[in-house]
Structure formats: C-alpha cells, structure tokens
C-alpha cells in the first residue's frame, strides 16, 4: 500500500510540474495551452535525440532541453499567441491544439509510434524503511518537490513574483499602476514551457518515450488544473500530487475505475467548489 | 497640468463620451458629478489609457500622452484609484503598497504611509481584500501617494463608506492638495464635494453640461441631489 502511495506521488510529480506551467500560463495570458503535453513529449525526445545522436548524457539534457524549448516557447508567444491574444480566446485554443497535433505527427513521422529506449542515469535502490524503492524515482520526486517549492518561493517572496501575481489577478489595473505587464508575458510563457520540457526529460528514463506520451498525460493534467483552481499555482501543485496519490490508490483498490477516478474526483470538487480547491470565484 | 481636448469614447457602436474638453490646473481639486452611466468612469479610464476606442487629445504636464500606454502614463505621474478600489487579493497589504513603482520626487515613504494609516501597518501581512471597505479605500489612496503621483484620478472614493471614514478621506484629500498634488475626483456626494474641491463639472450623456463653483453647488445642493437620484 505504502509503495503504491509512493508510486502515486512519483506520477504526481509529473502532474505537478505540468500543471504548474499550465497554471502560470493561464493566469498571466488567459490562454489554455493545449500544446503543453506536446512540449513535455518534445522534452523527452530532446533528451533521447541528444543521447542517441550526440552522446549527450542525461544531466546535460536536463539543463539544455528546457532552456532550448523555453526559448522556442518565447518565440511561439511572440510570433503567434501575442497576435491572437486580443481576439476571442478560442483562437489561441485552436492555435495551441493544432500545434500539439503538428508536433506529435512530425515526431511520429520520424520515429514511429513505438517507444524509444532511454537508460536510467543511475540505478540502485533506496531503503525507505518499510520498502525499498528505485533510487531514480526517489530522485524524480525530490527534484520535482524542490522545483515546485522554488517556484513557490519566487512567486511569494520576490518582486518578480509579486508582479506576476498582480498581473495574473488584474492585468489592466496592474498596467494602470505603472507595471509594463506585456514585458513579463513572454518570459512567463517560456518558463511554463521549460517546466513541461523539464518534466519530459525527467520522464524519459522511466516512461515510454513515444509521440503520444504527452497527449496521454495532458488530459489528466487538465483535470488536475481544474481541481486545483484555474490559474492557482499552489492549487495546481497540491492537486498534482493529490491526483497522483488518488489514482495510484484507486488502481490498487478499484482497478476498474483507475482511468475514470480522476474525473470523478474533478466532478466532485467542481460540485463542491466551482472555482476549484484554491481558485478564486472571479477567476472564472 | 491636465488639458483634455474634444475627447470622445465608444463602447462598440455606442458613444460614451462626446467631445469632452476640460482643464485642471496644478494643485486644484476638480470633481466630476453625474448620474450612473453619464460617462464619468469612462472619462477617468480614458485619461489612464485603459479605454480602447477614443478620439481627441490628452495633454499632461505639457506633454501629449494620448498615444501612451497606461503604465507609461502612471510613470509620468498619474495615480489611479479605480471605482472598485483595485485591491489585490493575492497580494498582502504591504505588497499592494509596494507594487507600483515610484514615479515622482514627492513620493511618500512607506513609514509616512503607516504613520498616516496605522491600520495598514497593523494589517500589513494580511491579504489586501481582508481589509474592510474603508481600509481598502485608504489602501488604494495610500498606494498612489506612495508613488508620488502628481495627479490623482479617484473614482468615487467615498462610495458606500461611513460618514466618519468619508471625513477622513476628505482630510487626506485636503492634505495632499496642500502638498501641491492635483486631484480629479468622481463624486456623487455633492455636499462632500463642496467641502474638498475647488470646481465641479456636471456630466450628462457623455458631455460636460455645466461647470460650478462651491457656492453654486451649495446653493443648488437639493436640486443636484434630486437630479442625481440620491
């Protein structure tokens, strides 16, 4: 049971990293980034391609891939998303959704649908007292907690974080108070993408690296973001780990429901709190 | 200090402001009076650069600011106090105060803000929206004073507040006026307006239809209140 719970927290790490990026992007831009899963997939493929073609190891990929994809995200925001922003939000939904399909199919065309092998950067297991657990999984959980915690500290304790929070809550008022909100939008989008890519690289050694890995995961991540409260950073991280835990335990006790449990949870939360656990009503 | 020339604004096809021209001199307090929907809030939003569809020109401190974005106007010394007070729920009281960058040399240091508004010091670590309505209004005013704004645009700061707090806001406005700050104030409470302001403009259907001094406002107080539907 405890081991299952731990498995759940490890899956929750990926949910949390992806939901965190989605939440800051949605908060600041009002855009639901449907391409988020595709960037996660590209992160894993980035690590695979670097290793396979250039012999670049995991540790370098963990830094390089998020930076490169983050910059690509900034370019995407500047070239396309920014131009569609004044129009109906539907246009950016369609843009990012189309982009996700294109990225997926380009990778599929080149690598096919079968999974690519990626070796673990280190093996071994750690004795956690009641059970032993693969060391890499423990590493993933620790790193993702550290990253989420750092983002939380930056958001709550720094001037940049204060500006991001203010711009997320009341973009127009924030401009009227002398803050150049537009200047912060591209970097925040790029940062969200970089987090997705980072999660992708982390996933490469333990998940199947294939073109559909992002699409499979992102549906659950959307449920996580809704449960946590759209645009709520703390909510999305907490809900990420909670959903990981709930689906792992659900898998153990009611395997038949393992796929649907997350959505039952989402429906229940929405009935109880329509803005999500940590969402604000006005954010709707 | 502020010169508005034939300013018009639209919401889609509907015209909200019709060639409004007005001037405010340095150190003056000028009020805009009018019924709901007359265009007062739209006028302040236009001055702040928050309204999309406009024509006409706005000059501030001798510079044409018509084409500037809101943040540039704020940095030139316009201080905006919106009608809903604009207090952030996700920022603490102190963060609300520290968010806008300092724009003028007469900026109030945080210490002075806290001396004037001791309640804000007590509550400085609380989320901004945990304050009472009157405290939120004080916070919104203190926030623009801390930036050293030269011209305050205040959208009905006394709305829904108790007489005691209205009096306190009056004291603050007189104090900032004495320090040379200029204020353009939306105000339905004409009695209050006559105690703080120098001149008054009556707005109806997007136009300035009448301009009055304090004596005239006092003489016509009942007629004005009747007209405003209060």
From TrEMBL, chain A:
One GO process term, biological-process aspect? amino acid transport
The record's subcellular location field reads:
Cell membrane
Keywords, ordered alphabetically: Amino-acid transport, Cell membrane, Membrane, Transmembrane, Transmembrane helix, Transport
MF terms from GO for this chain are: transmembrane transporter activity
Q: Give the transmembrane region(s).
A: 12-32, 39-69, 89-107, 128-155, 184-205, 217-246, 252-272
First-listed, main subcellular location of the protein, grouped into a coarse class: membrane
List, alphabetically, the InterPro entries matched. Answer: ABC_transp_permease (IPR001851), BCAA_transport_permease (IPR052157)
Q: How does it sit in the membrane?
A: Multi-pass membrane protein
Q: Name one GO cellular component term.
A: plasma membrane
Q: Into which family does the record put it?
A: Belongs to the binding-protein-dependent transport system permease family. LivHM subfamily.
What is the protein name for this chain? Answer: Branched-chain amino acid ABC transporter permease
Q: Which organism is it from?
A: Actinomadura rubrobrunea
Automatic annotation (TrEMBL), chain B:
Tell me which residues make up the ABC transporter domain: 2-230
| Keyword vocabulary terms for this entry | Amino-acid transport, ATP-binding, Nucleotide-binding, Transport
- Family named by the database record: Belongs to the ABC transporter superfamily.
Which Gene3D superfamilies does the entry link to? P-loop containing nucleotide triphosphate hydrolases
Q: What is this protein called?
A: ABC transporter ATP-binding protein
Has the keyword Coiled coil been applied to this entry? no
Q: Which GO terms describe its molecular function?
A: ATP binding; ATP hydrolysis activity; branched-chain amino acid transmembrane transporter activity
The domain of life is: Bacteria
According to its UniProt entry, the protein's GO biological process terms are:
L-amino acid transport
Q: Does the keyword Nuclease apply?
A: no
């Amino acid at each position: 049971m405890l081991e299952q719970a731990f498995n759940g927290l490890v899956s929750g790490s990926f949910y949390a990293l992806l939901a965190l990026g989605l939440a800051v992007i949605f908060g600041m831009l009002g855009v639901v980034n449907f391409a988020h899963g595709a960037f996660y997939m590209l992160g894993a493929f980035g690590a695979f391609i670097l290793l396979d073609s250039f012999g670049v190891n995991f540790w370098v990929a963990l830094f390089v891939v998020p930076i490169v994809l983050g910059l690509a995200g900034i370019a995407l925001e500047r070239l396309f998303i920014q131009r569609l922003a004044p129009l109906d939000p539907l246009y950016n939904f369609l843009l990012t959704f189309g982009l996700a399909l294109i990225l997926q199919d380009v990778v599929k065309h080149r690598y096919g649908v079968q999974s690519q092998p990626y070796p673990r950067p280190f093996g071994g297991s750690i004795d956690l007292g009641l059970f032993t657990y693969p060391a890499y999984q423990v590493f993933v959980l620790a790193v993702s907690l550290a990253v989420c915690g750092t983002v939380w500290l930056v958001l709550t304790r720094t001037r940049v974080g204060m500006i991001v929070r203010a711009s997320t809550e009341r973009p127009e008022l924030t401009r009227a108070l002398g803050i150049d909100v537009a200047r912060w939008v591209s970097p925040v989008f790029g940062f969200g993408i970089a987090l997705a890519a980072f999660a992708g690289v982390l996933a490469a050694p333990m998940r199947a690296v294939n073109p559909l890995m992002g699409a499979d995961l992102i549906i659950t991540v959307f449920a996580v973001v809704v449960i946590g409260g759209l645009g709520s950073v703390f909510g999305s991280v907490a809900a990420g780990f909670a959903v990981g835990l709930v689906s792992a335990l659900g898998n153990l006790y009611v395997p038949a429901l393992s796929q649907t449990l997350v959505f039952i949870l989402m429906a229940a939360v929405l009935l109880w709190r329509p803005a999500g656990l940590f969402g604000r009503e006005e954010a709707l | 200090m502020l010169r508005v020339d034939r300013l018009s604004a639209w919401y889609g096809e509907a015209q909200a402001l019709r060639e409004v021209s007005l001037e405010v001199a340095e150190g003056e307090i000028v009020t805009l009076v009018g019924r709901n929907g007359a265009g007062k809030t739209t006028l302040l939003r236009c001055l702040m650069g928050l309204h999309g569809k406009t024509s006409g020109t706005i000059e501030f401190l001798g510079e044409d600011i018509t084409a500037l974005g809101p943040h540039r106007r704020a940095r030139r010394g316009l201080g905006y106090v919106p009608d809903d007070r604009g207090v952030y729920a996700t920022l603490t009281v102190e963060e609300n105060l520290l968010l806008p960058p300092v724009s003028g040399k007469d900026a109030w240091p945080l210490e002075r803000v806290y001396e004037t508004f001791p309640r804000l010091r007590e509550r400085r670590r609380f989320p901004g929206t945990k304050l009472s309505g009157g405290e939120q209004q004080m916070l919104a005013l203190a926030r623009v004073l801390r930036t050293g704004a030269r011209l305050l645009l205040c959208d009905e700061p006394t709305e829904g507040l108790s007489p005691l707090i209205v009096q306190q806001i009056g004291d603050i406005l007189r104090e900032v006026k004495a320090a040379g700050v200029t204020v353009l104030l939306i105000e339905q409470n004409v009695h209050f307006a006559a105690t703080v302001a120098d001149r008054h403009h009556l707005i109806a259907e997007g136009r300035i239809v009448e301009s009055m001094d304090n004596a005239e406002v006092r003489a016509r107080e009942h007629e004005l209140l009747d007209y405003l539907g209060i």
